[in-house]
Amino acid sequence: MSDIDKAGRFRLGDREVRRMGFGAMQLAGPGVFGPPRDRAQCLAVLRAAIAAGVNHIDTSDFYGPFVVNEILAEALHPYPEDLVLVTKVGARRDEAGAWLPAFSPAEIVSAVHDNLRRLRVEVLDVVNLRSMHGHMRPEEGDLRPQLEALAGLQAQGKVRHIGVSHVTPNQIAQARSVCGIVCVQNLYNLVQRQDDALVEELAAAGIAFVPYFPLGGFSPIQSAALSAVAADLGASPMQVALAWLLQRSPNILLIPGTSSLGHLAQNLAAAELVLPPSALEALAKIG
After folding, report:
1. Is 230 inside a domain boundary?
2. What is the pLDDT, as a whole number, of residue 2?
3. What is the rounded (10 degree) CA torsion for 57, 58, 60, 66?
């Protein structure tokens, strides 16, 4: 049994995936913009992830933009049969790298076709609609026109399953009424736990919860308590933060990202780290 198998599996759409996946965002250049410093290293990281058993990769055409999907296709196409590729639509990048809405139904349809082309697939396994209501935290706003556009593409056989990202509980309910969803991708980690109740609700419904920025994102988690627990367990703080998420709820799927082979190995090893009750008690006081 590989390390990542020890974390178990959860259903994502019509397939079960290992709960330790891979987020491809960091395969772009600094600020998730432009080409990577070392493209060959990025290709190697993706191939190493697959060799280690990863079968869930998160990506988007607006990472780069376009760069990450092109690297994915170069590294892994034709894709392993068990690999689930999850992409995201709803935003775009301008020439300076700013993140801008691309949120009209027409833009959603165009983005899906762009992802199909660059990933070199006939159908996308899962497409997340990234709500553009709210910046740092999601805000209420109607998602029905965008969801209906995705549902239309699903009916055409271009999209297998639909998810939502950066959303409120009300927007999740709306999505489930329009098209059904298989996953929710929101900001959540050891420190930022505003979605605690949502994690539980989705688990009861059999819907995957996929934390973005599981390690804090552009500002990595810093905590004396986290460092102390990690030292006691002979692990890194980031491994402990990932292990905490895996133990938090069985429906949590992780997508930590990196462009480093060393960091990839460390992230994947977190799947075998079991946090004892004393560690969980200490970590519960963070945030």
Report:
1. no
2. 62
3. -40
Specify the CATH number for the domain of residue 73.
3.20.20.100
H-type alpha helices, 11-66: 39-51
List the domain range (segments joined by +) for residue 152: 3-219+252-259
Type and span of the H or E element at 75: helix 67-76
Question: Is residue 156 in some structural domain?
Answer: yes
CA distance 223 to 241: 10
Predicted pLDDT of residue 7? 80
pTM for this one?
Answer: 0.96
Number of structural domains (the chain) is 1
The chain-wide mean pLDDT, for the chain, equals 95
| C-beta of residue 79 within 8 angstroms of C-beta of residue 54 | no
Of these residues, 63, 79, 188, 212, which one is catalytic?
63
Structure tokens at 132: 């553009």
Residue 242 lies in a domain: no
pLDDT for the residue numbered 1: 57
Catalytic annotation present for 212: no
